[in-house]
Amino acid sequence: MSAAPAAQRGEKNVTPPAAASTAIRPDDSTTRAATTTPVPAAGAAVPAPVTPPGDDDPCERTAAEPTAASDPGSGPRDSTGPTGASFTRPTGMFSSLRVRNYRYFFAGQIVSNTGSWMQRIAQDWLVLSLTGSPLAVGITTAMQFLPTLLLGLFGGVLADRMPKRRLLIVTQGAMGLLAVGLAAMTMTGVVTASWVYAFALLLGLVTVVDTPTRQAFVSEMVGPEHLSNAVSLNAANFQTARLVGPAVAGLLIAAVGSGWAFALNALSFVAVIAGLLAMRSSELRPVDRIPRERGQLREGLRYVRERPDLLWPLVLASFIGTFGFNFPTLLAGFAYRTFHVGPGQYGLLNTAMALGSLAGALYAARRGNPRLRWLTGAALGFGLLEVLAAAAPGYWSFAVLLTLVGVFGLTFNTAVNSFVQLATEPEMRGRVMGLLVLVFTGGTPVGAPLVGWVTDAYGPRVGLLACGAVSALAAGTVGLVLARCADLRLRVDLHRGSRVVAFVPRGGAAEPARRRELATAC
């Protein structure tokens, strides 16, 4: 899903060069500026040299320019995007784990995510055993996601109004109590499908507040310099639990029944709450809470509408979330109707995608904070790979392509989460993250039935082909719209050693500040 620098939105906070001898790009205007900059007095702190906007590739620097390797005190290079967001180079795959508070949070999430996956599998199996109907399983999923579709924006408003750590303790405790209730009813044999629907709905209501709060809280733990890495590690954490949780749930269901899976999930929330309580408040970076006023929801929507660097990534996330991520329906169809394999090989398809997602999360953790071109490129690759997977001739080629789909899908997921958080002003972050959760996961009750109907009517291959085509078309369209908003043009350069395809400024008259910032973010 970090406090932005003090510079207001639309302004740049560029530190002047230290001295006339500071090496910079051979540009006339910047060279003249460097030669007229006074030399600091002896003993004074030497400001960092200017980093040209958009300079995110060390291979593009001239030999005279200092790098982090040659200048240890300089740190990773960055450029400033909208609202002063810093788009930095990589600092290490696990750099955010150096932050003590985040280590506690990460450890608790490992336990909790595993328990949540155990409950998800046990819940679906319980409903199927009670009703014998796959439709009932779909209703359970819809009940859990419906509150996000209807109330997701209000959860973001609460995240901006209340202390996030305290709010998370409440929501995590409520989830634990719901798991206790479902475990007790299952173990005593009084549970019915209607009760499972009710528990799923209540869990969805708590999630409406928990998800945007948890995502926005990451920036308060690690700050902007580690935010992208922390988001990527959270995704890796979730995908690891996705590999372990279902396997443990299967063993528990076979040995002692679904109720014990719910009970262990209830215990897993103790780890999260303990980690939150153990954090040092002095090391957090809380943002000022907004007072309770009317119109704050509309203010959040207006804020996004006026920011093309936020609006269009959210539009892309809505298409990817609604159509691209419908794998439960599609993979079941491929397993049973296309490749005619059993439940074991169906499980391997899910494992292949989870492994790809884990690889994508770890790859994202190695990179710096994302840019819009990386975000849209990952979405385009995701859609095209889905189209290729739809045409896979056999089971194993399909599994391999699913692994690549997982890599690109998770890369997009972490990129959009990190970018939106960094580009949003701190006092608006909860509402914007609530909107991201709404468009990314709230579309499931709409997209899943539609994709299911296409799959039933025309087959799984057509269903996956349609999902991939919609995702790729949305990525290409949003990429072109963003380039136009930033006044960029597509350049194709076939000379050796040059980037073959790149977006470059159109040139001409001076551009408005917002357009320059958007070009930097691209």
Automatic annotation (TrEMBL):
Biased composition (Low complexity): 33-48
InterPro entries: MFS_dom, MFS_trans_sf, TM_effector
Chief location bin: membrane
SUPFAM superfamilies: MFS general substrate transporter
Coiled-coil regions listed: none
Alphabetical keyword list: Cell membrane, Membrane, Transmembrane, Transmembrane helix, Transport
Annotated localization: Cell membrane
Stretches that traverse the bilayer: 135-155, 260-279, 310-334, 346-365, 372-392, 398-420, 432-451, 463-483
Residue ranges of domain Major facilitator superfamily (MFS) profile in the record: 93-486
Bilayer topology: Multi-pass membrane protein
Biased composition annotated in UniProt, kind: Polar residues: 80-89
PROSITE patterns (UniProt xref): MFS
Top-level taxon in the UniProt lineage: Bacteria
Record PANTHER family: INTEGRAL MEMBRANE EFFLUX PROTEIN-RELATED, STAPHYLOFERRIN A TRANSPORTER
Record protein name field: MFS transporter
Species: Kitasatospora nipponensis
